[in-house]
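Checklist before submission:
- one chain only
- standard amino acids only
- sequence pasted in full

Submission:
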Amino acid sequence: MSSNSQPNTKNYTNWILGISISIPLAVTALIYIPGGGLGNFDVSYFPHINAVLNSSTAFLLILGFVFIKSKNIAYHRICMATAFILSSCFLVLYVLYHFQTESTKFGGEGSIRFIYFLLLISHILLAVAVVPLVLYSLFFAFTDQIEKHKKIVKWTFPVWLYVAITGVIVYFMIKPYYI
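Returned file contents:
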């Protein structure tokens, strides 16, 4: 795409910011909605699926990094697009799970409780921050604004990878307390 035909980033900023704000607001609202909004729909296995989705996302992010370092752009794009799709599936299942059930309480005590909440809080805050980073990264990649893409992915990649990995760690730490 020539520089004259590149889309104006400002045209997409409202959409990216709107999505980036709507997602955490919707997830936060679920905390205040009593469980059971889907009737008898069983979502008990969703956290396990989400752990697989997060693990797969982390793997694809690392694989995509390896591919781009070896200048294999086609495989890099496949990995990153698939990681985005898996993260999106995670988000849908996460919202459905929390719409249907109340949050699981962590039952650990002592220093493990501190570690759990430290990981959980950093995971949540960075999960919110990574949404616009990922959306802008994808936007710049798909619109061939490669220099802008390279600048933002220096932040996106480590944050997204941290969120994916800590999501799995938090899952394993809270798994014994699922009902």
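Reviewer check: Residues 43-177 form one domain.
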